[in-house]
Amino acid sequence: MTTLDILLNVLVSGVLFGSIYAVVALGLAITFGILHIPNIAHPALVIMGGYFVVQANRFGIDPLIAATLGIVPFYLLGMLLYTFYANTFERRGRAEVLQSLTLFFGLSLVIEIFLVLVFGSELQSVSAPYIGTSLKLGQITIPGRLLVPALLGPVTIGLLWLYFKYTNSGTAIRAVAHDERALSIAGLDPAAVKRRAFGLATATAVIGGAALVLIGPIDPFGGRFQIGRVFAIVVLAGMGSIPGTLVVAIMLGIAESLVSSYLNPAWSPGVAFAILLAALALRPQGLFGAAR
Amino acid sequence: MTRNSKIFLAAALAVLLVGLLAPHVLKNPFYFFAGYVILQYVVIATGWNILGGYAGYINFGAAGFFGAGAYASAFLFNTFDIPLWGGLVAACLIGALLGVLMGYLTLRIQGVYFAIATLGLVIILETIIHNIPALGGARGIVVYGPPPPAWAAGPSQYMFFLMLLIAVASVSLARWMQISWVGRGLRAVRASENAAECSGVPTLRLKLLACAASGAVLAAAGAPYPFYTSFVEPVTVFSLLIGLNAIAMPLIGGTRTWLGPVIGALLLASTQQIATITISSELNILFVGIVLIAFVALAPNGILGLVARRSRETPR
What we know:
The complex is a heterodimer of chains A (292) and B (316).
Chain A: H1 3-34, H2 42-58, H3 63-88, H4 97-119, E1 134-137, E2 140-143, H5 144-166, H6 168-178, H7 180-185, H8 190-215, H9 224-237, H10 242-262, H11 268-282
Antiparallel strand pairs in A: 1-2
Helix pairs in contact in A: 1-5, 1-8, 1-9, 1-10, 2-3, 2-4, 2-8, 3-8, 5-6, 5-8, 6-8, 9-10, 9-11, 10-11
Chain B: H1 3-25, H2 29-52, H3 62-80, H4 84-106, H5 111-130, E1 141-142, H6 155-179, H7 181-191, H8 193-198, H9 203-222, H10 225-229, E2 231-232, H11 234-237, H12 240-253, H13 259-278, H14 281-298, H15 302-313
Antiparallel strand pairs in B: 1-2
Helix pairs in contact in B: 1-6, 2-6, 2-9, 2-12, 2-13, 3-4, 3-5, 3-9, 3-12, 4-5, 4-9, 6-7, 7-9, 12-13, 12-14, 12-15
């Protein structure tokens, strides 16, 4: 293999990892980017989604079908979480951001320990026919366990983008981010719209979980390593820009792939945070967001 | 000096005296071994509260500062034979520097971003230490501390008294920051940052000062740790439990005053010390997580807030 082939392989795996990061970050792009709820429990919910897929896979259900089946229960779970959140904070008057951060921090711990207590702390994995296979395009090799979850990224994001752009309930969610009062004057209940959006965000967690568990085995604490990455993506994408999420996630995937191939794999966990810190210091409005 | 400050000084001296005399009454060194951890959390909770409580900027990365302090003192002792006191001073400086750096990068934007960036600090520091062979990498460093001085009854008792000194110093610093112009300014920042800025409060400078003080105290809590366990490795000193407790303890006690974190730390850390003997560490984290959610949802001003509300409601 020539240097160029290696570079091409590195770039391709960066793009694949990036689209997977996009699915994981998508829920946060909705809750944090659109609703301004700092849901740091989202990565833990993604891992919980992964466990759902693993359990379904035990009965011989394909991970992709399992993820589709999981959308409804996770949607309901998200609505429940939002109801608890709204009763705790929004009824009290102003939702204090820092206290809700603490609430979600506590929630993510409860989820992690719940998974440890029920399923144990060992690694969990799934089996599917395409996991062992790989696709060869010239000098570029694409393993199936990366290609399939990577396709989930553009597909999920495309569907969500269509939903936000062309349906009435999608428009309502975008409207609630802009002006809650105007929405209630127009005869819609902002709390119900937000509950729906939060449910939708949580439903994406099970797809993200399926993507993660397809790449490799997961354990209950896997969400912690995703927190920095997902927030970096959401902030850099410019708070709530859905197509921006995909673009930024792919850029981050390429950066991490370059660092771990040409420097040292041990440094790659720091890449997302280093980029996030640089972004916060230099361009807080994100790459695709309007200045606020 | 006001009357309250005189009472505080007398109480602080009394606590130190009791700590000095306690080994002559309690013979079992385990009490001091467990007491050290409780006091360590008093320092951590107090340090966190300077920024998190007074200014309302939530720091999820307390473990990053703690770990930096622990590694600073361990490295200085093993490489340059610098005693613990020197390591403590160095840890404070490093903690303050980290705090200012952190604050400078994120404080100008918004509180949420600060909180997220602090989550990253722990992972970045852990990654760096994993990759530096001089700091032991993933294997950690063994520290053979010197024997305790002759006046101390044993190593546990000596480390306990040392931590008591750090705790009294940190609480005094937190109290001074609360009652002085610094505390008034930070309360204004917490209430409304724009209004504070418009009335001439130097908000950025005050926040950076709070970051530095908070970071220094958090790192000071970590500095004696390698001498206490004779061993440091990345996973324990950057443990999530430290960052979690740092938030939970002030929140349970009450974040508005210096007394809140002390009460919260004494309560929660003693419960955990009893709990680690009887239940697993997973249940321990679950317990703290649930307590945290319950307090945020039901009593956002902590135990002191509940007490204040009770005394206001009862007619006098």
